[in-house]
């Protein structure tokens, strides 16, 4: 387990020893990992990585899980060539580092990804999921992008967009009860603002006893008491996508 007092403890749990079933492709000005199901589909999901970037095996594992459930999954490099955070970096420099990677300034990258999915993958219904930094990016996209059907924000950093709650599309928010960087008071306030401002379907769910990063934590490192909630989080994510796509 990592030190949960770090500014953004996304490295709780180990990396998957996982190579991925998809392939890396060039999409406009960025690279992306793409995984396609064996049967044709017009449904696709954009997977937005956390601070450890698009090559993290844990994120590719989730992308392939979506593919196993019938979706084209694409995990683009939303840092657009800038280096991802490394576990060896000094956490004292994290705040300055993350300022140069704004989760609300990914629209150019999203546009080229949407074009790729439509032209090269035959996608007509497109959703988005994201983890931590990527979870905040999901909230940003759910507020403004008309081309997306639905989104799942997994422990998205609320403080990035805590004053923006007028959702355009159905959105599912997954939070962990013991998350050190997303206090439950913030989650409660988010719920209140969503209730006041959103006219579309949404759900906010808190998973008991869980910590930041629990849904894409290494499965071999699961504590017995955590396993049911990790599996539930993954199942809830897929069920939400199925419902709205």
UniProtKB/TrEMBL annotation:
<dbReference type="Pfam" id="PF01738">
    <property type="entry name" value="DLH"/>
</dbReference>
<dbReference type="GO" id="GO:0005829">
    <property type="term" value="C:cytosol"/>
</dbReference>
<dbReference type="GO" id="GO:0016787">
    <property type="term" value="F:hydrolase activity"/>
</dbReference>
<dbReference type="InterPro" id="IPR029058">
    <property type="entry name" value="AB_hydrolase_fold"/>
</dbReference>
<keyword id="KW-0963">Cytoplasm</keyword>
<dbReference type="InterPro" id="IPR042946">
    <property type="entry name" value="CMBL"/>
</dbReference>
<comment type="similarity">
    <text>Belongs to the dienelactone hydrolase family.</text>
</comment>
<dbReference type="InterPro" id="IPR002925">
    <property type="entry name" value="Dienelactn_hydro"/>
</dbReference>
<feature type="domain" description="Dienelactone hydrolase">
    <location>
        <begin position="30"/>
        <end position="244"/>
    </location>
</feature>
<protein>
    <recommendedName>
        <fullName>Carboxymethylenebutenolidase homolog</fullName>
    </recommendedName>
</protein>
């Amino acid at each position: 387990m990592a030190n949960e007092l770090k500014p953004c403890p996304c490295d709780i749990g180990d990396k998957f020893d996982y190579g991925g079933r998809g392939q890396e492709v060039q999409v406009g000005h960025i690279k992306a990992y793409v995984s396609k199901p064996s049967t044709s589909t017009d449904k696709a999901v954009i997977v937005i990585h956390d601070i450890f970037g698009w090559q993290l095996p844990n994120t590719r594992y989730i992308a392939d899980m979506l593919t196993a459930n019938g979706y084209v999954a694409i995990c683009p490099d939303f840092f657009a060539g800038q280096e991802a955070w490394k576990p060896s970096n000094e956490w004292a420099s994290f705040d300055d580092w993350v300022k140069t990677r704004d989760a609300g300034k990914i629209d150019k990258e999203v546009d080229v990804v949407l074009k790729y999915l439509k032209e090269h993958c035959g996608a007509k219904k497109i959703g988005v999921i994201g983890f931590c930094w990527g979870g905040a990016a999901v909230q940003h996209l759910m507020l403004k992008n008309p081309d997306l059907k639905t989104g799942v924000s997994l422990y998205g950093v609320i403080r990035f967009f805590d004053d923006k709650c007028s959702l355009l599309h159905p959105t599912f928010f997954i939070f962990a009860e013991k998350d050190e960087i997303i206090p439950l008071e913030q989650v409660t306030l988010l719920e209140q603002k969503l209730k006041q401002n959103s006219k579309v379907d949404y759900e906010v769910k808190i998973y008991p006893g869980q910590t930041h990063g629990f849904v894409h934590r290494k499965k071999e490192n699961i504590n017995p008491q955590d396993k049911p909630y990790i599996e539930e989080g993954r199942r809830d994510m897929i069920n939400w996508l199925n419902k709205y796509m």
